[in-house]
Every structure is written in C-alpha cells, then in structure tokens.
Design goal:
The chain is an alpha+beta fold. The chain is 34% helix and 24% strand.
Amino acid sequence: MTKPPSMNRDSILNGAAGYLMEELQCRGISAQPVLTEGGKALQIAGQGMLSMENVADDLMSGSVAEWEPRLQRWLEMVVSTVESKTGAAPSREEVMAQIRTRLIPATDSHGYAYARQFTDDLALILCLDFPTHVEKLTDESIVDLGIAVDELFAQGQQNTNVETIDEMFDEDDVHFIVGDTMYVAAKAADMPALLKHLGVNAPDGLLFAVPNRETLMYRVPTPGDGVADLIGLSQLLSSLSPEAGYENPGGVLSNNIYYWAPDGSIEPQMGDFRET
C-alpha cells in the first residue's frame, strides 16, 4: 500500500479498503464496501463483514512503514476465516474457551435474535475470540454450535470478566478502566464481579458509562449529591465524543450514563439517545 495523499482518517480508510479489495480479488474472494451503523466496512461475499474502522484504528496506531505488514495480517485473517468455513467445526472445548460477551448498539442487533437487552440502547451478544480476529455469532452460527444459548452466555461472561484491563486511572473523581480489547465495556454486564475484582464497595449502586468498547468509566454516588456526580461524569463523557474530536475505538458505543442498582437493574440517566 502506498502512502495516502494525506494522513486523515478517511484517506486511510479508503486506501486500506481499496488495497484489501484488490488483494482479496486476486485470491478469488469478492468484497464490497458498505456503510454500517458502526462505520465503514467490507462485505465479504458469503462470510460477513470486516470493520474498516478497526483496520484504520490498527493502522493509525503505527507508523506508515508498518501499514502494509499490518494490512497483510488483516488480509490473511480474512482469507483464513473464509477457508475455515469449510473446515472442521470447533470442538465444545474450543468454543467454551473462545466465547465472549460483547456490548453493541441496539440498532446493530438486527440478525441477532438471541441477543439480550442490556439497556434500551445497548444489546449483549456473543462472539468467538480467535488469535487473529473476532467473529460475532449470528442466529445461524449459534444453532450450528449446538450449545444452549444460556450456557454460552454464562461461559462467555466469565471469559469476558477476566479479559485484561490494561490501564486504570482517575480524573475528577471519575474512575476509568481501559483495555486494548473489544470486551472492556461488556464487563458491565456482570457488575458484581467487576466491583469485586476492583475492590470497590458500592452499597448505593454505581453511575457508569461505556463510550466505546475499550472503555468503562464509573463513579460511586455520593449520598445527597447525585446531581453533582452526574454532571461530573457527563462532562468527562462529553470530552470523549466525536464532537470533541475524540475518535472512539470501533465507533461510539453509547453516549448515555447509567445507574446500576444493587438489585441488578440498570437505568439510563441522560434520556433516550436512540435514533428515530
């Protein structure tokens, strides 16, 4: 891949998509650019989609000299996935080791009838975590696995709970949890396990936000000062928005703030941000 005429994200997205489409075509694999709720993607004939937003995130984290080797890794990942469709089905042990839960915008949950509602604007789905890529599980692929959905969700959440947290820091009494993984936000689906892992005592519940898949931010409410807590969290959340110039990994997951109650219920605190 030659260096794009400029370093802006659109140029990188378009250049990378063109490169991958050409290389895939040489291998007899058809791919077409599409626009999804999560941004630009390549529709791989008969196989699903490759998020070009993820590819762009990967490229922009390295130097220009690293772009072609990184694109080659994405290329081989797609080719390997296509070829694996005709291979042997994964064993139960492999599935249970690879299964993860993941939060996605509810508007992206069409085709995932098994998905569980997390909030009005977020859904919890399942995916398989491979060394080179992540595969979202569709209704059809769930049936093919032959494992009960409840069992997959239970094991998937356990696996998500122990996904690596790369960094934790505080800013203005708001605590941040960050990781180079698609599953940090989904740790909120088992809040008791997360709080136990963090050593956080939240007898009155928790205010939290998941601006993107790699970030979870929270604040323990101060008795009698809930409005100030909400404002503080809201101000920091706003700084992680596209309007503020921030590029969320994989796109914006949610711009809402939620209250988790000790009984397990979750309530949005900032209104309904779903598109109409």
